[in-house]
TrEMBL record:
Family: Belongs to the peptidase C48 family.
GO biological process: proteolysis
Residue ranges constituting the Ubiquitin-like protease family profile domain according to the UniProt record: 80-179
Protein source organism: Aegilops tauschii subsp. strangulata (Goatgrass)
One family name in Pfam for this protein: Peptidase_C48
Protein name, per record: Ubiquitin-like protease family profile domain-containing protein
Keywords, ordered alphabetically: Hydrolase, Protease
Molecular function in Gene Ontology: cysteine-type peptidase activity
């Protein structure tokens, strides 16, 4: 009986709970993301990004919403495979609206089991970090912001526009509701 229950659990947990325009989220990922004390899964975030793309198409909204693995690869960028992935993503995104003609680029990122949102605000010349747990001066954000901003600037110059200047960009941490549960 225990073996059958386990097999049934494996079968159901691998089944697709959400499929939205070729982006899938399994029952297991959905359940783990929404249960009390759970951790939001990147597959669920990808479904939301795809939905935002459709509801707020970049050609109208001038916004791009990238899957979390793109932001995570920008953060940890150090090899040619990651470069190719990011290059292909930026070029693909530019088919909907050239990314250098957008006002906002959204990168949800999970780093060390913690989610935050990195926003490149091209219109207002800002790198925005939205984080409900770690403050600007925390060790986490000091390291993350330095790596992410540096890697993003480098990749932008290599892939998008070698002449673009980020000299006037500020790093911003807007006031956020704080989470107290770690």
């Amino acid at each position: 009986c225990i073996v059958l229950t386990f097999i049934f659990y494996l079968y159901v947990s691998s089944m697709t709970a959400i499929i939205y325009r070729k982006v899938r989220c399994s029952y297991l990922s959905l359940g783990q993301s929404l249960m009390p004390g759970g951790h939001v899964n990147n597959f669920l975030i990808s479904v939301f990004c795809r939905k935002l793309f459709d509801d707020c198409h970049p050609s109208v909204s001038k916004k791009h919403y990238f899957f979390s693995y793109i932001g995570e690869n920008i953060l940890k960028y150090h090899n040619k495979d990651q470069f190719k992935l990011i290059q292909n993503t930026f070029k693909g995104a530019s088919l909907a609206k050239k990314i250098d003609a957008c006002e906002l680029l959204f990168f949800p990122i999970c780093h060390c089991k913690h989610w935050f949102l990195f926003v490149v605000d091209l219109q207002n010349c800002q790198f925005v970090f939205m984080d409900s747990l770690f403050l600007k001066k925390s060790r986490y954000q000091v390291v993350v912001s330095e790596m992410l901003v540096g890697n993003f600037k480098h990749l932008w110059k290599e892939i998008v526009d070698s002449e673009y200047s980020f000299d006037n960009f500020r790093i911003v941490y807007p006031a956020m509701p704080r989470q107290g549960n770690g």
